[in-house]
Amino acid sequence: MFHQFRENGRLPAVDLMKLYASFLVILSHCVSRFVTDFESPLYNAIWLTQMPLFFFASGLVSPRQEKLDGLGKFLLRTAKHALTLLFPCLTFLLLSCALSSASVLTAFRLFYEDPQNGLWFLFVLFFVHLVFDFGTYLSTKMGFRGSSILVPILFSAVCCLFALLLPRLAGFSPRILGLKLFAYYIPYYVFGFLARCFLSSAAFSSRKPAVLWAIFGASLAIVLFEVFYFPSIPAFDDGDILFLAIRVLGSTASILVHLFLTDILTSNGKLGRFASLGSYSLQSYYLHILFLRTLPFSASGAAMQWLLSFGTAILLAMMVGVACLILHFIPFANLVLFGKSRSFYAFERRLPKILR
Q1: Is the pLDDT score of 173 beyond 50?
Q2: Cβ-contact 319, 291 below 8 angstroms
Q3: Given Cys at both, which of 255, 278, 319, 347 links 18, Cβ 3.0 to 4.6 Å?
């Protein structure tokens, strides 16, 4: 089990995670748009999984120490993340303002006050990468054994604590610049990094399948208990440490369940091509929000609202697929919107590697 996680390059299991999480995000937004009663085990399951799984998948393929063993390599990687993560945030804000005739300055102010007014996931993921990559770069300057693991984790923990304490000390909202989101989600990125370290270690090779299946069974039991026992996990008070622990435990267990399942599904290689669609998660995240705002649907009654949510999610997924196909044949369209080029055009393929 998990033999693919020891390989380099794109990992089908990770791509499948991102593809699945992308659909959960689309479905979640449809549910929040059309369903009036969120007290549902299904919505609990979606909410526990979607974004933590994204950050975990990113941590699972975090760069190894040798890729950040110089300041130049760190700055180049940061520039690439700025292009592929921050640039789409900018184009999304500008495009949203153009479509709604809203003020650009107001949009930037609202995004500063709470990045959830825009593509918050990309914005927060950029700073998660920045912090963890800098910690990895610092580890290359340390000579003690285990520095490649301990230093980035400790540096991330310090930054997480700083993000939690700064709003309290300075007296401003923790939503500003997504500090609260950063502090909550960077542990899942670190969890992905630790999982990668364990899965590629000699200690993992000696593990018996029975132990792994026991972990899977315990994780599944935790997820099912939380999903069905609590009426609405999204309604938990963020300031309550017990509720926070329940959320983190449920999300961690859900990640482990999906880690097992995606690895099993991709172990025979037949789902590799389908799973590769997960590499379009950024485009999916970006486009479906724009499309959802244009749909005039509504429904009354709980059953019809959920049916409309699933139907709209499938429709949006199809619209995103068609849009990505069209953009593929428009020169520089992907570069302008998403900060990366995906085109057949020869002159785009000659762009510097950082832009492709």
Answers
A1: yes
A2: yes
A3: 278
Average the pLDDT over 88-112 and give the result: 91
Identify the residue whose tokens are 């609990």.
Answer: 44
Question: Alpha helix (H) ranges present in 200-280?
Answer: 202-205, 209-229, 241-266, 272-275
Residue labelled with tokens 């300075």 = 170
Q: Could you tell me the CA-to-CA distances from 162 to 131, 170, 174, 182, 265 in Å, in that order?
A: 12, 11, 11, 11, 40
pLDDT over 80 (residue 71): yes
Closest CA to 285 of 79, 10, 91, 130: 91
The structure tokens 């995000």 sit at 25
Rounded CA gap, 75 and 289, in Å? 31
CB-CB contact of 93 with 118 (8 Å): yes
Confidence band, pLDDT 50/70/90 cuts, at residue 8: very low
**Average pLDDT value for residue range 186-194:** 95
- The size of the chain, in residues, is 356
Indicate the angle between helix axes 120-139 and 41-60, nearest 10 degrees: 40
Tokens encoding 24: 């959960």
The mean pLDDT of the chain is: 88
- The torsion region of residue 122 among left (phi > 0), alpha (psi -120 to 50) and beta comes to alpha
Measure the CA–CA gap between 220 and 218, rounded to whole angstroms.
5
- Output DSSP code: residue 83: I
Torsion 121-124-130-131 (CA) sign: negative
Name the residue with tokens 């990125």: 189
